[in-house]
Amino acid sequence: MSMNTVLLAFSRNDEQRIDELFDTATSIVDPDGTIVLLHVFDREQYDTISTKLNIDDDSEVTPDDIARRSRIGREITTRLDDAGVDYVVRGALGETSDAILRQSESDDADLVVVGGRSRSATGKALFGSTAQKVLVEADCPVTFVKEQSEEKKKAAAPA
Fold first, then answer.
1. pLDDT grade, residue 142 (50/70/90)?
2. In terms of CB atoms within 10 Å, which end of the chain has fewer, N or C?
């Protein structure tokens, strides 16, 4: 199955999962494919980042620009540059799952990669509401990337 366009959705909540998200998306995308990075913001996050970046309210800055300039966006794009993987950066304001679904449709994504965490010992099969909605409603396959526990990270690190 061709994976020419992989949508990698991320937010500031994914900082602890960057390695897993990056490794998953880059291992799946075709060699000549493109990763669409989507950073979804709520209004408060968007305004906070705009303020930190000293962006004037009257400037022609788009959510795509804010996504590119956010700390997590810069980190992922630097890694993609180093890996030689083609990508585009998109930003969106609003409800996360709806924005992911809209973007996956507009880019005709072959696969969506979304992160999350286990909810509880008894709820390991349950995903957060965002991931669950994307898993159920996306028109393409969805890969759910769970954050590794600290114990697993330490065990995987070379001595």
1. very high
2. C
